């Protein structure tokens, strides 16, 4: 069956009344849990598994897929409005989304996020449809050495995430790497920096760090600067209108980062969070005005938003075509498939075409629903900002606490949230940037594991990183991206000197 | 007005008293007749996050208990994630003699404490019943030159550095130790086995692209890849051939002349000092569940094998397993 016949089968499933109904339920539930900091698609899907028991598998899976990409779609709302990322995939959204909201352009920021999400989601569904079978070979071509090189490439971007002092950015990044080593080391089973405390055995959940460094630290700043705030309601929401010029500005990043996000989503282990960071950095690197990033740049908002949604669809490539779950969420999805009597894997496309293509077709529909649902909601969502500040601050603290508690139901994590909140606040006061910390935390852990797996495999021979073309080329790209900006600067300076 | 309020308070306190009394009498009846009947909801802890094996087992068991009415009181599943189970175990240990706090567990209840990562192990809890057995599988890429376990182990004896094993758990835990156990029985030096852990979902990928050689995992994880012709299974840790399509094609280690097996058991426990009457009660209920048609369907759905053990049998089985694992861990230098 080729993609065209497949899609006809798929749309027969997606456009049946059941298909439409369950896509709708899925994306609504997804949007809602995405907006709540801490509540993520993993727990939502796990809770749905017993509910879907005995249901026809196609609509049930279509619904769960809807929850997944709906959550990534909805996760941007609290990132933009409150600087409290709804899910880990939308941390980078806050970098430029929150400054926009502070400048009184909350409505516009939400609209841009919705459009970029829709675009990223749709482009990647098209790629999923056309390339899923072909891309499955890409997904398995990455071994530990290639992952190490990929993470290294991501880490070289730290310098571009820094405002001002590069040294301070590096210190923040090193701190991030140090924090990620806390816990039981997967390669030896040894405890590192746990002080025998069982609560530290698993290390820190990413959301504790993200909510602490961003939401709680922001709350502290708001309390500190409470005098100079008196925006009127109109200013707070601002115009919803995305002008033609805005669209033109975001079209480049959206198109590029939909592809980048999709490819990174396909790789097991990478996923929406890493994709959104890499895309943000990518756009900043190639931008003519990188200084605008972090201050409410439309490009800086559109890039991670299209990328994280594209990565979400990308994550379905290894799941549907190989039966390999590349992330926690897709692992739970795999469980849901099994419960419903469907085995995802290389044979799914031929054995159960209605499910394979039905899920893909439903994503078109789901993305349209999400756009239609979210755009009219924006004025109401943005009203959050006109809540009196003391109340708003309490709400952010409450949602952050609930969010963290719902990850593990462990009170210890709440204290840690406050510790990272205090750290984030101190970093703000002494102008250490938080993004390099977060990036190093995400990439550093995977990079270390990949490095050590490679070392075990090669019996300690470093040549494993340059002996095969894939890791070698990634390392070369990483080196070039470090050297080229410096060279360009040097050349332009020399030109100036010669003039 | 005042009068009505007073009456209400009186009525309310009367109710409270009545409640106390009935509970007391329930307790007394436990003491006298030796029978236990739950008088409130039962909490079932899954010592991991939503979606994993423990969580699935707990939820399915709670669901079937409710739907069949085998246990009439509600059974609520809660997830206590962290430390590979250690946080949940510490919590249950604190419940002392409560007959309303159960949890599900499997071999990590031994591996985690043996690796020094939990204060409490199986001997600190009251085994109620084992329900399920699962087995390990050792898979290699479909184009590998090894045809059976002996090919693999021969190469490992000759050149141990040339073979890398990958699993999802950390060294000293299940995926690692099931391989060590079988390999040692085949004569491989257990200290020289190269094992890498991949907890980010890349283990199977690494076998498929040739980065590592052997995937040590559960049988359920490999069936579909075998069906698609991507990998082949050199051997499984079951004692006898398993039943089912594809599954019945997997040769056991035993039939390849390696006299060793490994069971990934899964069952239920209570707090340390649970009353014998309550133990008897749950043992009986789990037995009924295990024999029910509804639970047979659940086993079939997930590909689990039936393995009911009563409280006493379970304890003996666990103690034997523990000794074997302890010796093995010490031998490879990971013992605590």
From TrEMBL, chain A:
<keyword id="KW-1133">Transmembrane helix</keyword>
<feature type="transmembrane region" description="Helical">
    <location>
        <begin position="390"/>
        <end position="407"/>
    </location>
</feature>
<feature type="transmembrane region" description="Helical">
    <location>
        <begin position="414"/>
        <end position="442"/>
    </location>
</feature>
<dbReference type="InterPro" id="IPR002823">
    <property type="entry name" value="DUF112_TM"/>
</dbReference>
<keyword id="KW-0812">Transmembrane</keyword>
<feature type="transmembrane region" description="Helical">
    <location>
        <begin position="259"/>
        <end position="282"/>
    </location>
</feature>
<feature type="transmembrane region" description="Helical">
    <location>
        <begin position="165"/>
        <end position="184"/>
    </location>
</feature>
<feature type="transmembrane region" description="Helical">
    <location>
        <begin position="58"/>
        <end position="74"/>
    </location>
</feature>
<feature type="transmembrane region" description="Helical">
    <location>
        <begin position="322"/>
        <end position="343"/>
    </location>
</feature>
<feature type="transmembrane region" description="Helical">
    <location>
        <begin position="138"/>
        <end position="158"/>
    </location>
</feature>
<keyword id="KW-0472">Membrane</keyword>
<feature type="transmembrane region" description="Helical">
    <location>
        <begin position="204"/>
        <end position="224"/>
    </location>
</feature>
<feature type="transmembrane region" description="Helical">
    <location>
        <begin position="462"/>
        <end position="488"/>
    </location>
</feature>
<feature type="domain" description="DUF112">
    <location>
        <begin position="20"/>
        <end position="439"/>
    </location>
</feature>
<dbReference type="Pfam" id="PF01970">
    <property type="entry name" value="TctA"/>
</dbReference>
<feature type="transmembrane region" description="Helical">
    <location>
        <begin position="110"/>
        <end position="132"/>
    </location>
</feature>
<feature type="transmembrane region" description="Helical">
    <location>
        <begin position="20"/>
        <end position="46"/>
    </location>
</feature>
<feature type="transmembrane region" description="Helical">
    <location>
        <begin position="355"/>
        <end position="378"/>
    </location>
</feature>
<protein>
    <recommendedName>
        <fullName>DUF112 domain-containing protein</fullName>
    </recommendedName>
</protein>
From TrEMBL, chain B:
<feature type="signal peptide">
    <location>
        <begin position="1"/>
        <end position="18"/>
    </location>
</feature>
<keyword id="KW-0732">Signal</keyword>
<dbReference type="InterPro" id="IPR005064">
    <property type="entry name" value="BUG"/>
</dbReference>
<protein>
    <submittedName>
        <fullName>Putative tricarboxylic transport membrane protein</fullName>
    </submittedName>
</protein>
<comment type="similarity">
    <text>Belongs to the UPF0065 (bug) family.</text>
</comment>
<dbReference type="Pfam" id="PF03401">
    <property type="entry name" value="TctC"/>
</dbReference>
<dbReference type="InterPro" id="IPR042100">
    <property type="entry name" value="Bug_dom1"/>
</dbReference>
């Amino acid at each position: 069956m080729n993609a065209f016949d497949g899609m006809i089968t798929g749309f027969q499933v997606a456009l049946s009344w059941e298909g439409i109904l369950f896509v709708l339920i899925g994306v609504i539930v997804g949007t809602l849990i995405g907006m709540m900091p801490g509540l993520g698609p993993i727990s939502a899907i796990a809770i749905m598994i017993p509910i879907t028991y005995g249901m026809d598998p196609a609509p049930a899976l279509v619904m769960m897929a809807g929850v997944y990409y709906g959550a990534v779609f909805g996760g941007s709302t609290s990132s933009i409005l409150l600087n409290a990322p709804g899910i880990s995939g939308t941390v980078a959204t806050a970098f430029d989304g929150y400054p926009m909201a502070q400048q009184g352009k909350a409505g516009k920021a939400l609209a841009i996020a919705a459009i970029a999400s829709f675009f990223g989601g749709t482009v990647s569904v098209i790629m999923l449809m056309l390339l899923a079978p072909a891309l499955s070979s890409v997904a398995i071509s990455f071994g530990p050495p290639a992952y190490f090189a990929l993470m290294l490439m991501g880490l070289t971007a730290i310098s571009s995430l820094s405002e001002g002092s590069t040294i301070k950015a590096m210190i923040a990044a090193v701190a991030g790497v140090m924090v990620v080593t806390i816990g039981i080391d997967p390669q030896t089973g040894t405890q590192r920096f746990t002080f025998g405390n069982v609560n530290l055995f698993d290390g820190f959940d990413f959301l504790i760090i993200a909510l602490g460094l961003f939401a709680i630290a922001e709350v502290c700043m708001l309390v500190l600067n409470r005098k100079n705030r008196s925006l009127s309601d109109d200013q707070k929401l601002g115009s919803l209108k995305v002008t033609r010029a805005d669209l033109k500005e975001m079209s480049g990043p959206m198109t590029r980062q939909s592809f980048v996000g999709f490819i990174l989503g396909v790789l097991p282990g990478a996923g929406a969070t890493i994709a959104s960071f890499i895309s943000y950095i990518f756009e900043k690197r190639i931008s003519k005005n990188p200084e605008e990033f972090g201050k409410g740049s439309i490009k800086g908002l559109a890039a991670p938003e299209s990328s994280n949604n594209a990565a979400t669809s990308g994550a379905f490539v290894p799941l549907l075509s190989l039966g390999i779950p590349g992330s926690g969420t897709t692992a739970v999805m795999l469980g849901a498939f099994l419960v419903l009597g469907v085995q995802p894997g290389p044979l799914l496309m031929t054995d159960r075409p209605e499910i394979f293509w039905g899920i893909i077709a439903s994503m078109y529909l789901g993305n349209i629903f999400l756009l239609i649902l979210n755009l009219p909601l924006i004025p109401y969502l943005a009203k959050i900002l006109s809540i009196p500040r003391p109340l708003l601050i309490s709400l952010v603290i409450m949602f952050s606490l609930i969010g963290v508690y719902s990850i593990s139901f462990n009170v210890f994590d709440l204290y840690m949230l406050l510790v990272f909140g205090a750290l984030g606040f101190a970093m703000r006061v002494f102008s250490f940037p938080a993004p390099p910390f977060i990036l190093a935390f995400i990439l550093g852990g995977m990079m270390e594991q990949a490095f050590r797996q490679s070392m075990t495999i090669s019996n300690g021979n470093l040549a494993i990183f340059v002996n095969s073309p894939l890791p070698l080329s990634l390392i070369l790209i990483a080196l070039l991206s470090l050297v080229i900006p410096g060279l360009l600067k040097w050349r332009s300076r020399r030109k100036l000197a010669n003039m | 007005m005042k009068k009505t309020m007073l009456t209400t308070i009186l009525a309310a306190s009367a109710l409270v008293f009545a409640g106390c009394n009935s509970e007391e009498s329930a307790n007394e009846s436990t003491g006298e007749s030796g029978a236990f009947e739950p008088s409130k909801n039962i909490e079932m802890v899954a010592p991991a996050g939503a979606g994993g094996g423990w969580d699935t087992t707990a939820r399915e068991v709670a669901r079937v208990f409710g739907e069949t009415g085998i246990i009439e009181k509600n059974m609520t599943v809660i997830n206590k994630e962290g430390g590979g189970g250690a946080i949940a175990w510490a919590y249950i240990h604190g419940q002392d003699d409560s007959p309303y706090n159960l949890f599900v567990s499997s071999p990590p209840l031994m591996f985690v404490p043996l690796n020094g990562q939990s204060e409490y192990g199986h001997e600190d809890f009251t085994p109620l019943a084992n329900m399920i057995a699962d087995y390990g599988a050792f898979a290699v890429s479909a184009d590998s030159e090894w045809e059976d376990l002996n090919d693999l182990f021969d190469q490992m004896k000759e050149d141990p550095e040339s073979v890398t094993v990958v699993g999802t758990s950390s060294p000293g835990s299940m995926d690692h130790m099931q391989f060590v156990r079988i390999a040692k029985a085949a004569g491989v030096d257990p200290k020289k086995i190269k094992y890498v852990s991949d907890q980010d979902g890349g283990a199977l990928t690494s076998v498929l692209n040739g980065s590592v050689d052997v995937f040590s995992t559960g049988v359920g994880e490999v069936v579909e890849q075998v069906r698609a012709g991507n990998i082949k299974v050199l051997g499984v840790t079951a004692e006898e051939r398993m039943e089912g399509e594809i599954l019945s094609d997997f040769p056991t280690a035993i039939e390849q002349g390696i006299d060793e097996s490994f069971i990934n058991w899964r069952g239920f426990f209570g707090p340390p000092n649970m009353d014998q009457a309550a133990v008897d009660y749950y043992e009986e209920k789990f037995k009924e569940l295990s024999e029910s048609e509804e639970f047979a369907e659940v086993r079939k759905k997930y590909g689990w094998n039936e393995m009911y053990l009563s409280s006493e049998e379970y304890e003996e089985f666990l103690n034997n397993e523990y000794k074997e694992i302890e010796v093995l861990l010490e031998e490879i230098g990971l013992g605590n």
